[in-house]
Specification:
With about 300 residues, the protein is an alpha/beta fold. The chain folds into two domains: about 150 residues, Rossmann fold, CATH 3.40.50.620; about 130 residues, Riboflavin kinase-like (Elongation Factor Tu (Ef-tu), domain 3), CATH 2.40.30. Helix content is about 30%, strand content about 25%. Strands 8-13-10-11-12-9 form a six-stranded antiparallel β-sheet. Strands 3-2-1-4-5 form a five-stranded parallel β-sheet, with helices on both faces. α7 packs antiparallel against α8. The chain is elongated and about 75 Å long. The N and C termini lie far apart (about 55 Å).
Amino acid sequence: MRSAITIGNFDGVHRGHRALVESIVGWKRGHAEPDSVRTVVMTFEPHPVEVLRPGTLVPRLTPVAEKQRLLYGLGVDEVRVVPFTAAFSKTSARDFFDHVLLQNLKGGFIAVGGNFFFGHNREGSPGRIVDWAQERGFEAKIIPGVESDGDLISSSRIRRLIEAGEMVPAARLLGRDYSITGEVVHGDKRGRQLGFPTANLVPAVAQIGAPCLPARGVYLSSATIEGKTYPSITNVGVKPTVSNSGQVTVETHLLLTPTPPDLYGKQLTVEFRDRLRAEMKFQGLAELVSQIQQDIETARARLGLR
């Protein structure tokens, strides 16, 4: 069985990535015998930069499992996650092409982006893939990047937007609202004491695979737990009014009651729709409560809730 292959990191599975996936799915669909073709997305973990530049961390738009789920949702037959190691990084571009793409995957069609480089010292270019494919008698295609607002869509561009709290333009590039998933953990119960119970996530921020966190602040959001989605409001930050720990938390308050019980230990997905305001330090709890009430009223009005 021949393969239609695309290769890349695919962090975020954004609109540009989807153009690559659509090219291999479309090639299979147009094949004289589509059942004889499988579509394969090859991606890498950890991010190559984290191996090639030790100490560098690339905040993830999508953890591996979420990346796979999104790619399979686009109709591909296989998502192959290749461990990226220092030894693997020394593989020559030609060896990778001949042994991995041809012999292992039995490539019949390969689609890559115009900025895709591979092999030791990035010696493999999109142009070389096309030339080598022609030598072997099969097809390769360079897929143009997808633009939005005059610039190419890229994972790094989306990370910058999210880290600046610009969730609406980030969603435009992703093709969906940006989300973070994690296990609900016990907090200090202060939100409940103040009358605003929250489901709390404590994302890792200084290790490989850490999520890309939105800028500190309060966000209009939606929260999904056990297949049910609730309108919500989410705070990302260090709670400077009530805590000196410096620990970044993601705290989500569900806007519709009754609040589902027993959330601890369950998986929560928070989708960030828009930033309402930056994180602030208040003079005391009364001022904090007043601002939270204003935030909730703003969120309910934006969502058309009564």
